[in-house]
Amino acid sequence: MTNWQISDEEKLLKQSAEEFFREKLPVSSLRYMRDRNDQVGYSPEIWKEMAELGWTGILIPEEYDGLNFGLRGLGVVLEAAGRTLSPSPLFSTVLLGGTILQAEGSESQKKKYLPAIAGGKLLLAVGTEEGLHHGSQKIEASARREGEGYRLSGQKKLVLDAQSADKLVVLARTGEGERSALSWFIVDRQAPGVTTKTFRLIDGRLGCHLELHNVSVPAENLLGFEGKAAASYQLLQDAGAAGLAAEMLGSATAAFEMTLAYLKERKQFGVAIGSFQALQHRAAHMYCELEVSRAAVQKALSAYDSSDPKRSLYASLAKAKVGQVFEHVARECLQLFAGIGMTDEHVIGFYLKRSRIATELFGNNAFHRDRYASLVGY
Amino acid sequence: MLNEFRKEVRSWLEENCPPTMRTPMSEKEIVWGGRNAKFPHPDAKVWMDRMAAKGWTVPEWPRVYGGGGLNPQETQVLREEMQDLGCRLPLNSFGIHMLAPVLMKYGTEEQKLEHLPKIARGEIRWCQGYSEPESGSDLASLQMRAEQTADGFLLNGSKVWTSYAEESDWIFCLVRTDTTVPKQQGISFVLVDMNQPGVKAEPILLISGNSPFCEVFFTNVKTPKNNLVGRLNGGWEIAKALLTHERQWISGMGLTEEEPIENYIKSKMGADAEGRLLDLAFRDKLTHFHLDSAAFELTLERETALQKAGHSPGAASSIFKLYGTELNKRRYDLIVEAAGFDALSWEGEVSAVDHVKTRTWLRTKGNSIEGGTSEIQLNVIAKRVLGLP
Ligand SMILES: Cc1cc2nc3c(=O)[nH]c(=O)nc-3n(C[C@H](O)[C@H](O)[C@H](O)COP(=O)(O)OP(=O)(O)OC[C@H]3O[C@@H](n4cnc5c(N)ncnc54)[C@H](O)[C@@H]3O)c2cc1C
Asked: What stretches of B280-351 show up as alpha helix (H) in DSSP?
């Protein structure tokens, strides 16, 4: 049974996270990064503050210095971050990196890495996808055994936050077969043979193309059992999809609220444009879609935390539904702002751009619809 | 405590729910109660009476009104156990879902004691006299007159689209009691016994081939003073309150389908060895529906949970009405599209199941009209939820 009540703790977290991102990382910070051609991708000072608030340890068990608040807790923070499109290593390090390390790490690996994540002292980036879409291409990056360790070669198409990560968590092939021969490795970003080519994403953030040329990785940096990464890859997909869905819900809701305010304030023909029924109905439709999306996101996060057997089904539901709704809302909002919305100066364009990026990451809408259908069984 | 209760409920249900009442129910098998109640299966009456005797047709109502006096947790337990055993809903009615909630809030004690137990026991069936030929979406413009007499009201006029009027015993009506004030301020909410001269219900044939709704004519019909609910000319507030209950009720329709939609579609369109639909374009279309439907079900689940904790839906019930009914229409669009030629015949050759589906497809088109059209729901959301001018 999902607990649909929002606890007092969650309310407090939501409030403080929204305030935090509004003050410290508003939409203008994206523009600032872009216009200064920033090559770091986040603000170390603000990241430190986020660590002090405990958000870096939100998924991590208490024995490793975390808060153990679950994905539902992290979802609250991500949703708040999504409202202002705030760039930070939260998704890459805390959600993606943290999830893999907790699922696959040995006791000594967990002791080494988890408290460092919780303390905000270790940044991670996770590289899995090699094609133009999530899941569209077989993993071909390979890890060859050599002596005590491995040699990694291959490429990862788009890795978020690799440019500033201390360690990369890389999915590579250690044998043949569709899924059965994949393994996780922790790779030092500074290691010889690692190249990160950064480029500017449409929303102003940085993306990275990762290349590995015969990179030497010691055996102790194998995460989990060799050839057995499939289950945690699926776990990562679920966490990634559900977490992103929460962030996207925040973005879509904020874009909608901004537009709703504009409908009340912009006058044409001597009246507020929000008095036109054609626009009222479009706003009402968006609102309904956001409401049902919210339930799907809440369910996906809770199902993840409670290891619900339908965890993957709900993750796909949330990502596909919110993906479609965010793209719809972004298109509609742009149309309703009209001329001013087309200008670089206005923020709404950033929301449209973000909707494109977020929809494509961790499985686009078609990917999750297909996955959902297969999981239901038709 | 709750576990004890669960055990009791379980064993009582196992003992008292006839096995025939533990199978999925078609629309025709719904038990509506009333003086002329029809029970497609004799066990349906046994089941209704047994549940009514426990007060479990309306488990959360107070006992004095014929309910079970259960708290929200106990009600939930009862629902879960019924669901687990596959027990049918013993009784469903406009009385339970529309009239009772407003009687509880606006009725006098005398009115509650008079009408609620009969609703709970399925003795009296109610219908809804809102719409008139000239007043649909603009409901407040209604014109059916109620003149005050020494001991009550004299009614003249007509109501239309009145669902199940022919089979109903009583009607709750919106009537005009003052023509000199703005339209919302001259409306009263009255209860009328239909079993009297001057009330005539004429069935109207629907596109689905059924005639569940009627035009109802009132000629010098009397109803006593104590059948006025709330204040004289204070009916509009009650009318709106009732609509929020109606909308929420309608929005859940279609969620209690007997079988998953994909099973029927597979049986019509074919699937591969792994059960994957062969027509991939249709599969994707079905998935679009599934996602919306699943997200909506979760939304209702959340809403129910929050309402139990005291949250009141108000105008937000329009969201559920709009979304739920549009979904139900899409559900049946997919079903008839999948069935192809089998969904084209009105009668004869194809199976009864297919005919029911086709006629239900036609019936569902009314879901986004009854209880206020989708456009009206959008207006309500825009104005009352979003605060647009
Ligand atoms: C199956 C079924 C069962 C019913 N059962 C009952 C019942 O038991 N009791 C009862 O009282 N009534 C009942 N009704 C009637 C129902 O409530 C009305 O049909 C409904 O309110 C619409 O009124 P109308 O048909 O007169 O359409 P109209 O109000 O004439 O509307 C025509 C079209 O104009 C649109 N429209 C109207 N006003 C606006 C506006 N302001 N903005 C935008 N669009 C607008 C409508 O959405 C619709 O598309 C039932 C209807 C159906 C289909």
From this structure: 280-308, 317-339
